[in-house]
Design a protein that fits this description.
Elements: H1 6-11, E1 38-41, H2 51-61, E2 71-74, H3 99-108, E3 112-118, H4 135-145, E4 149-153, H5 167-182, E5 187-191, E6 210-212, H6 224-235, E7 246-248, H7 261-273, E8 278-280, H8 289-292, H9 295-301, E9 310-314, E10 318-324, E11 330-336, E12 342-347, E13 353-357, E14 363-366, E15 369-374, E16 379-386, E17 395-399, E18 411-413, E19 419-427, E20 434-442, E21 448-451, E22 456-460, E23 465-473, E24 482-491, E25 494-504, E26 511-514, E27 522-525, E28 531-532, E29 547-549, E30 552-554, E31 557-561, E32 564-569, E33 574-583, E34 592-599, E35 602-611, E36 617-622, E37 628-635, E38 644-654
Parallel strand pairs: 1-2, 1-8, 2-3, 3-4, 4-5, 5-6, 6-7, 18-25
Antiparallel strand pairs: 9-10, 10-11, 11-16, 12-15, 13-14, 13-16, 17-19, 19-23, 20-22, 20-24, 21-23, 24-25, 26-38, 27-32, 28-31, 29-30, 31-38, 32-37, 33-36, 33-38, 34-35, 34-37
Helix pairs in contact: 4-5, 6-7, 7-9
C-alpha cells in the first residue's frame, strides 16, 4: 500500500507539460548520439562475481542480442587488491584468464564488455584501486583489453585535495578527466548520484552516455514501492536528458522474484518511455521473455529521437506520459500507481488517431480520446499515430470501477454476504457504432454472480455507456485475501477482456475487541514485521518483548517500527478506536514517531510527535461510517533509528 505521489504531482506545477498531438521536441539525432544501452549487470552477484559467471551470463544474453541486449557489465569486485607494476589488474582468483580474454569471449558472442572503475582512490566494493590520479593510464589499460563501456563510480573521493570546492565542483573536475582519456570509442556512464553531484545539470557537456538519477548505489530492492520511488525521482530529472545522454534510473528487476509480472512489465514500460538504459539485474536466463523481449516496446526505448516521456497529467495516483518518436508517432503511457483498477483517460486532440497497445498488440481508432481501465500497479503503452485506418473504436471496458474520487483500494466483500459489482462499457473512440453487446462476469469457483440489470445491449454510439449491475456473493469459507474477477465483452466487431481485484475480509464483531486479535487487510513496516502483543523487537518475527512504555507494561497491542501502516476492514459498522501511543522502552530514550488514525481517506486523530523519553499518550478516534481504518506511525522528523512505535491496549468498538 503506497501513499500518493505528492512530489510528482506537485512537479506538474513547476515543469512544463506536453501536448499529445505534434511535437516541438524533434531535434535530430547526430553522430555519436547512441540510444540507451541494453544488457546485463553483475551487481546482484556482488563479490561472488567470477569470470565463469560472466561467461555464463554472456551465453544467456546472446539470444537477446538481436533485440539490442549487447552490454555485459561487470560491476565491482573484478579488480585485484593492488596494482601490478602501476597498472590495473584483475583479481587472479575471480578472473584467472584476464579481462582481455574475457572481452574476446564476449565479443565473439556479438556482445560488448563493460567494467566499473572509481573516480576516487578505491573501488566502491571489493577493495581494488580507484583511478584518481591515474585516469589516463587506466583508460589506456581498459582500452587495450578491448573494453567497450566504463561505468565510473563515485567512491573514496579525496575531497581534501579540493579545498573550497563542493561535491558538484569536484565531480565536474574528475569525471571529464576519464571521459577524455577514454576517447569516443568507449561509452562512458556516470554513476555518481549521491545527492550532491547533480549530474543531470552537466552530464551532457561532460560527454556522458548515461547518468544516474536515483540515490541507491546498492542492488535495488526488488519491490514495487522501491521501483516507483526510483521512477518518480527519475521523472523529475528527465528534462535534462536527450539523444546520446540518457537519464539512468538504474537496473531492471524482472526475473528476481520480488514483484508480480504486471509490476515488472510496468517498470519496463516506464523505463522504455523514459529512454532509460535497459540493463538486467537478474541473470539473463531468469528474465521473463514476456517482459523483457517485446520488440515494439524496446523500439520505443531505442527510438533515435531520444527524447524521454514527460508528464501530460498526474494526480499522484494516475499518470499519463507522452514521448515523441522519430517518425512523428507518439508513445503514450497510462500508469495506475494505485492498489485498485482505475480508468485513465487523455485527450489526443482533434483528428482521427490509430492507437496500438504494444503489450497486447490490440489496435483501435479514436476521434480524440484515449481511455482504458488500467489494472492496479499496471502501465499500458500505446503507439499513437494520425491515421484514417479502419479499426474498431477505442472501447473502455471497466470491471468494478472506483465508486468515488480517491477510491484507491480494491473493493472489499464479506464472506457469505451479497454485494453489488458494476461493469461498464463506453464507446470512447466514437469512430463507429458498437452493436450486439454482451457482457459476462466470471468469478472464482464457489462464488455466485447474477446480473441484476440486462447484460446485453443492441448498440452503443460514440460517447454512450452501457452499465450492468451484478450481485456477487463469496462463499462463507472464502479465503480472506485478494481475488481476481474477470469479465468478457463481446460485440459484433470483436471481443475484449477486463479484470479487477476484490478483497475478501471480515469486519470486526459487535462490541469492543482488541484489534491485535483481528486480521489486518494490509500492513507495511520499516524494519521487521509488525508484532502482535509484543514490541517490534528486531528483524525476525516473534523476537519482541512485552509492550512497555514509560515503565508501564501492556498485555495487548501492536508493536511496529515507524514508518508503519496497518489497515483493517470495518464495513462501516464501527465507531471508535482507542490506544495508548508511545515509543517502547526497549530503545531507551531514543526514537520518535507520530501516531495517526485514518478513516477511509482522511486523518481523524493523531498523537503528535512522541519520543522514547515520554510516557504513553492516549489517542481516541471516531471512525463512524468508515469502511477502512488505517493505523499509521510516521517518522518523527529525524531518521528512523529506534522508532519502535507501540499501539498499546489497542481496541475498536463496533455495532
Amino acid at each position: 500500500m503506497r501513499t500518493p505521489t505528492a512530489a510528482l504531482a506537485a512537479a506538474l506545477l513547476t515543469l512544463p507539460l506536453i501536448a499529445l498531438p505534434g511535437s516541438a521536441d524533434t531535434a535530430p539525432t547526430g553522430p555519436g548520439e547512441a540510444p540507451p544501452p541494453m544488457g546485463w549487470s553483475s551487481r546482484s552477484l556482488g563479490c561472488s562475481v567470477t569470470e565463469a559467471a560472466v561467461r555464463q551470463a554472456a551465453d544467456a544474453l546472446a539470444p537477446l542480442a538481436p533485440l539490442g541486449y549487447r552490454h555485459v557489465v561487470i560491476d565491482d569486485c573484478w579488480l585485484a587488491a593492488q596494482r601490478s607494476g602501476g597498472a590495473l589488474a584483475p583479481d587472479p582468483a575471480r578472473f584467472p584468464g584476464g579481462i582481455a580474454a574475457l572481452a574476446g569471449y564476449v565479443h565473439g558472442k556479438g556482445l560488448k564488455l563493460g567494467l566499473s572503475l572509481s573516480a576516487g582512490t578505491r573501488a566502491c566494493a571489493g577493495g581494488g584501486p580507484g583511478s584518481y590520479g591515474s585516469e589516463a593510464a587506466d583508460a589506456g589499460q581498459v582500452k587495450s583489453w578491448g573494453v567497450d563501456h566504463v561505468r565510473y563510480d563515485w567512491c573514496a573521493i579525496p575531497t581534501a585535495d579540493f579545498p573550497g570546492q563542493n561535491v558538484q565542483q569536484i565531480a565536474q573536475a574528475l569525471y571529464p578527466r576519464m571521459r577524455q582519456a577514454l576517447g569516443d570509442g568507449v561509452a562512458f556512464a556516470m554513476n555518481n548520484e549521491d545527492g550532491g553531484t547533480v549530474p543531470w545539470l552537466w552530464a551532457r557537456d561532460a560527454g556522458a552516455a548515461t547518468w544516474r538519477t536515483n540515490v541507491v548505489s546498492r542492488p535495488l530492492p526488488d519491490s514495487y514501492a522501491a521501483m516507483v520511488d526510483v521512477w518518480e525521482t527519475n521523472q523529475l530529472r528527465v528534462q535534462y536528458a536527450g539523444p546520446g545522454s540518457h537519464a539512468d534510473p538504474d537496473l531492471l528487476q524482472a526475473g528476481r522474484g520480488g514483484m508480480t509480472e504486471t509490476e515488472y512489465r510496468t517498470q519496463f514500460t516506464l523505463w522504455a518511455a523514459a529512454a532509460a538504459p535497459l540493463i538486467l539485474q537478474a541473470g539473463p536466463a531468469a528474465a521473463p521473455a514476456a517482459v523483457v523481449a517485446n520488440p515494439k516496446v524496446i523500439a520505443v526505448d531505442q527510438d533515435p529521437l531520444g527524447v524521454p516521456a514527460r508528464l501530460v497529467s498526474s494526480d499522484g495516483w494516475y499518470h499519463v506520459l507522452s514521448r515523441p518518436l522519430r517518425n512523428g508517432d507518439r508513445a503514450v503511457v497510462l500508469f495506475n500507481e494505485s492498489d485498485r483498477s482505475a480508468t485513465i483517460s487523455t485527450s489526443l486532440g482533434a483528428g482521427r488517431w490509430r492507437a496500438e497497445e504494444l503489450w497486447t498488440g490490440a489496435v483501435a481508432s479514436t476521434r480524440g480520446t484515449l481511455s482504458a481501465q488500467v489494472p492496479a500497479h499496471a502501465a499500458l503503452l500505446y503507439r499513437v499515430s494520425a491515421s484514417r485506418e479502419q479499426a474498431p473504436p477505442v472501447v473502455t471496458f471497466e470491471v468494478d470501477p472506483p465508486r468515488f474520487l480517491g477510491d484507491d483500494r480494491p473493493t472489499t466483500l464479506e464472506p457469505g454476504v451479497t454485494s453489488e459489482i458494476v461493469t461498464r462499457v463506453v464507446n470512447t473512440g466514437a469512430t463507429s457504432r458498437l452493436r450486439d453487446l454482451r457482457v459476462a462476469l466470471n468469478v472464482p469457483d464457489g462464488w455466485q454472480a447474477e446480473p441484476r440489470t440486462p447484460a446485453t445491449a443492441a448498440g452503443l454510439d460514440g460517447g454512450e455507456a452501457f452499465t450492468v449491475t451484478w450481485a456477487v456473493t463469496p462463499p462463507a469459507g472464502a479465503e480472506r485475501r485478494n481475488h481476481d474477477l474477470t469479465a468478457t465483452l463481446s460485440h459484433a466487431g470483436g471481443a475484449q477482456d477486463g479484470s479487477a481485484v476484490v478483497a475478501v475480509a471480515q469486519a470486526p464483531p459487535s462490541g469492543t475487541s482488541h484489534l491485535g486479535d483481528l486480521p489486518w487487510t494490509a500492513v507495511k513496516n520499516y524494519f521487521g514485521p509488525v508484532e502482535k502483543d509484543t514490541s517490534n523487537g528486531g528483524k525476525a518475527a516473534g523476537d519482541g518483548l512485552p509492550i512497555t512504555i514509560g515503565g508501564v507494561r501492556y498485555a495487548k497491542g501492536l508493536g511496529a517500527h515507524a514508518p508503519a501502516e496497518i489497515e483493517y476492514y470495518l464495513a462501516g459498522r464501527c465507531t471508535t478506536v482507542r490506544f495508548e501511543a508511545g515509543i517502547d522502552d526497549e530503545v531507551g530514550s531514543a526514537g520518535s514517531a507520530d501516531f495517526e488514525v485514518w478513516a477511509d481517506g482522511g486523518r481523524v486523530a493523531h498523537s503528535g510527535v512522541l519520543t522514547g523519553a515520554q510516557p504513553a499518550r492516549k489517542v481516541t478516534a471516531s471512525v463512524a461510517g468508515a469502511r477502512h481504518v488505517r493505523l499509521v506511525a510516521t517518522n518523527g522528523g529525524d531518521n528512523a533509528t529506534s522508532d519502535h512505535a507501540d499501539f498499546a491496549d489497542l481496541t475498536i468498538t463496533c455495532q
